[in-house]
Specification:
single chain, alpha/beta, Amidase signature (AS) enzymes, 11-stranded mixed β-sheet, two-stranded antiparallel sheet
Amino acid sequence: MSPGPRTAVATVEELQLRYSELNPLVNAVCTPNPAALTEAVRLDTERDDGRARGPLHGLPVLVKDNIDTADLPTTAGSLALADQPPPPYDAPLVRRLREAGCIILGKTNLSEWANFRGAASSSGWSAYGGLTRNPYALNRSAGGSSSGSGAAVAAGLADLAIGTETNGSIVCPAALNGIVGLKPTVGLIPQQGIVPLSHSQDTAGPMTRTVRQAAALLTVMSGGGIDFEASCQGDDLTGVRIGVPRGPLWGYSNSLDQITEQALTLLSAAGATIIDRLSLPSPGSEEDQLAILSYEMKVDLAAYLATRHPGGPRTLADIIAFNKANADTELRYFGQELFERSEQTDGLDSAIYVAARLSGLRAGRDGIDNLLRDNQLDAMVTPSYSPAWAIDLINGDHVLGSSSSHAALAGYPLLAVPSGLVEGLPVGITFHGTGRSDATLIRLAHAFETARIKAHGPFPTPEFKPWV
């Protein structure tokens, strides 16, 4: 007789033990849920009574600490929100997780304010949660801003976690920590109840050990109208056309490029037609990209803070003042010049904002869609991020390159999946597509994941040691 499904209680107890052993090393979880075991007992009872809610019933999920949970603090990593009561309601995506039978195991640390406060920031650091470290190399970055979610899954503190992305904040920590990160099309998952940076670019998304798990989570988070897991169809990509935009998304890491070439070989062997030596236009000026975020953050953050406890901060100006008054903790490693720039903006009807937004859409949506159409592509594939850089709290991040800006400006989906190791450090490839092509990207990433495991075996587990 085959054993029955593992109980939620047994799973939570095992993860809590692992948390006590490993979280002190990686600091991925900033707020464990003290009620997780009680919730597991309740869900096991439901299952025993024949009332299982679906395939995620009884599974623990970690949630990034900028997503509202009515029973746990939501701080965005800032001490300005740390002493405030929890939000009055769960974010809609959290409510959907609970309704599907998921257990909120805790909240994960992040780069404070989603890495948009000061230019010299270090990914994975927040005044509230401290510094998250990469399980594969404790002296190297876990990426940002969903650093805690990425490191937690890699460390085995949960198989399922939720991150958020504006520009790279899911796919970067996914790549650096050797896990799967899915940034959905903006709008597929409700934005309400998420501490905002940019309404035109922000979205939550799954961060998991496998593509199939990410697809199952996306089904629940998006409301269940599409069964994304059905897109995990094996490793046959016959008839699929995948473009390779070399410019400007390759060339910043030779070792990463070499592993990505091996990934192209696997995709071709799976039946895909690779259309190589393509190029995307520049993602626009850095000034335009910064203007979009600066203008949107001031407005969007005020709208969010209005939903929180009336005794807390209400505007970006309030946060800036708090940071100045608590500079020894909040401003210890880097400043808040991005906040101050945002505070000087004058609303979303500004000609500067409108022009920057239109420029971003042309570079992002037109750039991606034109390349897909002109070459009859189903999707594109690129290297994800450079291997994890050394943590440097004094000088900030040392990112060599990335490939998320076009999709960020467009609001289009990305899916990062592990592709190999560079001197023991995980790297990945990223699949890109047009709006609402999430299911296509899941199919391609699952096929690649299957082919890579067949060729090279399971991805190695981290050793929780410094990289030397």
